[in-house]
Amino acid sequence: MKKISRALFINFGGIGDEILFLPTLKSFKTKYPEAHITLALEPRSKSIKNLSSLIDDVLLIDVKSKNKYFELIKLIFKARIGKYDIVFSSGGNKLISILLFLTGIKQRYGFDTGKLSQLLLTKSCPLIKNRYASEMYHALVQPITNDFAQIPEIKIDEAIEIEPNSVVIHPGVSKMSVSKNMVKTYSPEKWTDLIKQLLNKGKKVYLAGGPDDKDYIQAITANFDENTDNFINYYGKTKNIMDLAKLIASKEALVCCDSAPMHIGIGVNTKVLAIFGPTDEKKLIPQNEKFIAVKNTSCSCRPCLWDKRNTTCSALTCLEIPIDEILKQL
Q1: 3-state secondary structure 183-220
Q2: Which of 287, 288, 246, 291 is nearest to 273 (CA)?
Q3: pLDDT > 80? residue 178
Q4: Residue 66: is its pLDDT beyond 70?
Q5: Quick check: 208 and 234 in contact, CB under 8 A?
Q6: 230 in Cβ contact with 204 (< 8 Å)
Q7: By the 8 A CB rule, do 300 and 317 touch?
Q8: Among 3, 27, 269, 313, whose CB has the most other CB atoms within 10 angstroms?
Q9: Which range among 13-22, 54-63, 141-150, 162-171 shows the weakest confidence by mean pLDDT?
Q10: In the prediction, which pLDDT does 113 show?
Q11: How far apart are CA 149 and CA 125, in angstroms?
């Protein structure tokens, strides 16, 4: 393959999806260290650039907006004038191959979605959904590199000292998920119970959260004296995603649900205990003894979200996970 100077990667989704995409970028960068990488992504995920030095530029394409077709035309236009040598797209839609063809970029890599992708792409790569998402994405660059980075890495450009006996709690509430009736986290009452038991065991607990977690955080902190030495309400103190990464990296463990903070915890190599209710841990957390999926093993109908249904059920039996399971792992 001739010299690659400029590469365009397209990966739409939330910040968690972008973190899961980092190993793909890393393997490409290992093969082509001088290549300039542009990542086309949704505006809600633009902060990924602050978590990785692999990305030189971002191209914001709001595919969730009412003007999504205009946004896709904008992507084609930007790609055509960007003088890219190669393009990769993680999309599983059958029309992605047409989109890549219209960019005019000569080398086009995407997932095999049928005869159209085989005709229009330089290489149509196998789309195997039933595995860790980072591995699924990595198939895009496998034809051009033997390097295989599996677990995302988030680089923090300062020395981090790990505080002994410390735990970060992050409820990981997403208002978008809640509005679409996709419940993936404990209730505030259950988070409160977990924190109390951790404090009783002598742990130092940091409660963190983003704007979507505000109501949960208030419901939890109402049950605690915030002047205690071992309970620190850290809500509002992480001003950006890198602040959150530094907080998680400086503690012994993170307890969260299937959420962006979980992927950040994995990226900074902190011990992660992630509550998995309706979603499939095999696709979202690597097989590694440091990253643990805590689940209700007696719930026969899980995982269901996205594969079997688009919302969670009213029973939420899958989230009836005893706190003792978390305490045992800690």
Answers
A1: CCCCCHHHHHHHHHHHHHCCCEEEECCCHHHHHHHHHH
A2: 291
A3: no
A4: yes
A5: yes
A6: yes
A7: no
A8: 27
A9: 141-150
A10: 96
A11: 17
Model confidence at 227: pLDDT above 70? no
Helices 214-221 and 188-200 pack at an angle, to 10 degrees, of: 50
**Residue finishing a domain among 80, 105, 138:** 138
Check: CB of residue 238 under 8 Å from CB of residue 247. Answer: yes
Tokens describing residue 230 = 């071992």
Q: What is the CATH number of the domain that holds 14?
A: 3.40.50.2000
Residue 49's closest CA among 74, 89, 18, 20? 18
Is 110's pLDDT higher than 90? yes
Indicate whether 313 and 241 sit together in one domain. Answer: yes
Q: Is residue 114 part of a domain?
A: yes
pLDDT-derived band at 307 (thresholds 50, 70, 90) equals: confident
Residue 203 tokens, joined:
């742990």
User: Among the residues of the chain, which ranges form H helices?
Assistant: 15-31, 68-81, 96-102, 115-120, 133-138, 175-179, 188-200, 214-221, 241-249, 260-267, 281-284, 323-329
Task: Please check whether residues 177 and 282 belong to one and the same domain.
Answer: yes
Same-domain pairing of 174 and 270: yes
> 127 and 13: one domain?
yes
Arithmetic mean of pLDDT over the chain: 93
For the chain, what is the domain count? 2
Q: Does a structural domain hold residue 247?
A: yes
Find the domain containing 121 and state its range: 6-138
What pLDDT is recorded for position 320? 92
pLDDT at 181: 82
Co-location of 197 and 306 in the same domain: yes
What's the confidence (pLDDT) of residue 149? 81
pTM: 0.94
- What is the distance between the alpha carbons of residues 88 and 140, in angstroms, rounded to a whole number? 7
